[in-house]
Amino acid sequence: MRRAVILWGWAALAWCQGVPAPRVEAAAASWLQLAEVLASVDRHYPPLLVAMQDKVIADADITVAESRFDVALKGGYEGDYLGYYRNDYYKAGVEQATQFQGMSYFTGYTLGRGSYPTYEGKRQTDGGGEYKAGVRMPALRDRAIDSRRAELQKATLGRRIANLGVDQQRLLIVQLATRRYYDWLAAGRRHQAALAVLKVAELRDQQLKEATRLGQIPQIDVTDNLRAILTRRAQVIELERALQLAAIELSLFLRDDKGDPRLPPAAMLPPAFPALRAWDEQRMMEDIELAVKRRPEMQRFAMQRGQVEIDRKLARNQLMPNMDVALSYTRELGDRVVRRGPDELELALIFDMPLQRRSAKGRDQAALARITQFDQRERFARDQVVAEVRDAYSALVAAWRRAQVLREEVEVARQLETAERVRFELGEGTLFLVNLREQAAFDTEIREVSALSDYFRSLALYEFSIGEALTRRMGVNAQP
User: Fold this and answer.
1) pLDDT tens figures, 188-247
2) DSSP output for 62-76
3) Around Cβ 242, how many Cβ atoms within 10 Å?
4) Are residues 93 and 75 in contact, defined by beta-carbon separation less than 8 angstroms?
5) Which residue in 205, 260, 309, 361 has its CB near the most CB atoms, within 10 A?
6) Helix 431-465 and helix 219-251: axis angle, to 10°?
């Protein structure tokens, strides 16, 4: 039995040290890191690529808004063929609206030939035609803002809102990808633990058979060990299926250069979870302020409120009277035909104002009500963000404490397992109790893996709540 005791002692030492399966003996460079998964998400994850198209659409909206400031080319021809006055009138011009206080520039050329009645005398020009250039600027309404500038400003804010929408999607996807990564790692660790405890029972099987042949132990111990082997093989099969499922779910985020899902092989499993770190409440208080500044939904409320404020400015603009100032210079060319000119400088004032202005008043009231809505929504969103950070912090600390306790429990369970095995070797115990201790140690290790997985899942939720991924931009490993 001395040889058997030595072999059993080696097996116990291997189990207590948590010997991993042979496939994790690969170089560390071949292990799948979280940073690689997140980088793959940023390059190839379809839902994120879909969200990014919102930025393209927002850019297109800005282009549409800018088109209202495009140069406008105008022209036309009018001719009178059957009337008393026979004439031809040609006109062409260019007008350019600007964003500077609603000002616009215009220039044009007209040519009037033939005879005209006195009331249309301005259509007649000298022989070389008439050139005109001028500027038009609002003095009251449309000076600070007008519909064209309002549309462009809202489109600019819309692009920022689209960017924030992409950031929001990125936060959600990073959290989900991180959780799937640690689910896969936890499934791998459980599978490795099941393989290790099975190996102990299989190694002991040959030793027990030899001891039974020599008449040193009863046959029932061999049978009981066979029962343990079958039970543990079933556990291995069950946990192998869980590992395969975790790999399949992770493959949705881990993609190859073509963007197709890539199943991570078991050989890429890291040998252990990253190291844990303690957390303090002061860190949480600092992170709450960071979360309020970082979280995209908080910034989106500000941008959407800005759009409504533009609507209100435009409505208040419509309450003012319209007074445009126009200054133009005209030059007559060619043979003298008309008495005016040849140079003219004209100044015009144009005034109009609806007396009731109910449309503008209604729009102003509606915009003010929407601003009030956004203020309340923003306030509640802030409260939600603070609550989410506090809840995530509470879950993270609880997971850390649980992992620390289970780490100690695993050590105690392994000590009891070793002690029970020694008692059995000394004839003071039974193989049934040894199997119970081994199973208890295995169950405790499984619970430790679950606690570690919960910690890193909670860490992913906490980093989501404070918008941590937006500072890394997917470029740095999210492990602590």
Assistant:
1) 999 999 999 999 888 888 888 888 888 877 888 888 889 989 999 999 999 999 999 999
2) HHHHHGGGS-EEEEE
3) 18
4) yes
5) 309
6) 10
Rg over alpha carbons for the chain, rounded to the nearest Å, is 40
Question: Other CB atoms closer than 10 Å to residue 440's CB: what's the count?
Answer: 16
| Pair type for strands 87-97 and 72-80 | antiparallel
User: CA-CA distance, 78 to 68, in Å (whole number)?
Assistant: 28
* Residue 40 CB burial class (10 angstroms; 0-12, 13-18, ≥19): buried
State how far the Cα of 441 lies from the Cα of 415, in Å rounded to an integer. Answer: 9
Backbone angles phi, psi at 332, to 5 degrees: -90, 140
Distant-in-sequence, close-in-space partners of 229: CB < 8 Å, separation ≥ 6: 198, 201, 202, 205
CB atoms under 10 Å from CB of 57, counted, come to: 11
pLDDT tens, residue by residue, 32-82: 999 999 999 999 999 999 999 999 999 999 999 999 999 999 999 999 988
Nearest to 99 by CA among 132, 64, 143, 163: 143
* DSSP notation for 325-342: EEEEEEEEESS--SSS-S
Residue identified by tokens 């005398």 is 121
Query: What is the phi/psi pair of residue 438, to 5°?
Result: -65, -40
Contact status, residue 417 vs residue 15, Cβ threshold 8 Å: yes
What predicted TM-score, i.e. pTM, was given to this entire model? 0.79
- How far apart, in whole angstroms, are the C-alpha atoms of residue 405 and residue 454? 14
Amino acid symbol at 426: L
- Residues 6 or more apart whose CB falls under 8 angstroms from that of 26 comprise 267, 268
Amino acid at 118: T
**Domains by residue range for the chain, with CATH:** 2-63+149-306+370-472 (1.20.1600.10)
Enclosing H/E stretch for 107:
strand 104-114
What is d(CA 12, CA 424) in angstroms, rounded to the nearest whole number?
13
Spatial CA neighbour of 164 closest among 65, 375, 172: 172
Between CA 97 and CA 136 the distance in angstroms is 9
